[in-house]
TrEMBL record:
Family of the protein in this entry: Belongs to the short-chain dehydrogenases/reductases (SDR) family.
Lineage: Bacteria, Thermotogati, Thermotogota, Thermotogae, Thermotogales
Gene3D superfamilies xrefs: NAD(P)-binding Rossmann-like Domain
Organism: Thermosipho atlanticus DSM 15807
SUPFAM superfamilies cross-referenced by the UniProt entry: NAD(P)-binding Rossmann-fold domains
Pfam families given in the database record: adh_short
Name the UniProt record assigns to this protein: NAD(P)-dependent dehydrogenase, short-chain alcohol dehydrogenase family
MF terms (GO), sorted A to Z: oxidoreductase activity, acting on the CH-OH group of donors, NAD or NADP as acceptor
């Protein structure tokens, strides 16, 4: 199978890449920096490293046109978190968060589909966050993150309905609180543990249009 992973050069995306390669699948690692040492050191023949700045629409269009093969599993993983609090919200941080966390995933999916790169019977996995769950919200370390991830959840739901006709499952996944640059060093879960669980979930998921945590438990929108 062919997996396409955005933000594959570090954190959860890199852990997913390593675990998927161990399973002998092919990985297209979509990254901003083609010289990312992590990826180059893997020395794997099953990996293609391609340039993609998910915040740039032209980059998404170019990437999707240049991609040579069809994708079984698209993992929209790239994300950004800018800490903020009301009433000190920053307009620029909202724009950047929406470009990466919401529009990046949505427009990459659209461009791949229009270029016939999404395989029938495949899956689209949007890496979301419990902080994007409206039902579970009390407070947040970042308004722009929570709001952009809640919007990503709406994209998941709408796309899941559209892709019924293509037999493609679309779902959101909260990866847990993970020890990465974003999650910080106090996070209880390693990227490898999160990645193994997410892959297990991807392999076993049968229902479209749902929001799961990395253990497979359903989360309320
Ligand atoms: N860690 C957690 O506790 C946690 C919890 C819930 C949800 N999540 C979600 O899990 C996903 C991965 O998070 P992480 O913890 O692995 O974060 P991370 O360590 O900060 O890594 C973020 C990844 O996204 C990429 N990225 C950011 N902006 C990009 C852009 N414009 N174009 C292409 N790639 C871009 C980064 O690439 P560069 O190296 O080029 O910046 C990097 O590979 C995110 O969607 C995040 O919201 C994480």
């Amino acid at each position: 199978m062919t997996f396409l992973i955005t933000g594959a050069n570090r954190g959860i995306g890199f852990a997913l890449t390593k675990e998927i390669l161990k399973k002998k699948h092919k990985v297209i690692a979509a990254v901003r920096n083609l010289k990312a040492k992590n990826l180059l050191q893997l020395e794997e023949e099953n990996i293609d490293i391609m340039h993609l700045d998910i915040s740039d629409y032209n980059s998404i269009v170019d990437f999707s046109a240049q991609l040579k093969c069809e994708v079984d599993i698209l993992i929209n993983n790239a994300g950004v978190l800018f800490k903020d609090s009301f009433p000190e919200l920053k307009y620029e941080d909202f724009l950047n968060s929406f470009k990466v966390n919401t529009l990046g995933a949505l427009f990459l999916t659209q461009e791949l589909y229009k270029n016939k790169k999404l395989k029938k019977g495949g899956k689209i996995v949007n890496i979301d966050s419990i902080l994007g769950s409206i039902s579970n919200t009390r407070t947040t370390p970042s308004y722009c993150y929570s709001i952009s991830k809640a919007a990503l959840n709406m994209a998941t739901k709408l796309l899941s309905n559209y892709f019924l006709k293509e037999d493609i499952l679309v779902f959101s996944v909260h990866p847990g609180w993970v020890k990465t640059d974003m999650g910080g060093k106090n996070a209880p879960i390693t990227p490898e543990e999160s990645a193994k669980n997410i892959i297990n979930l991807i392999e076993n998921v049968k229902e479209t249009g749902k929001f799961y945590d990395y253990t497979g438990k359903e989360i309320e929108w």
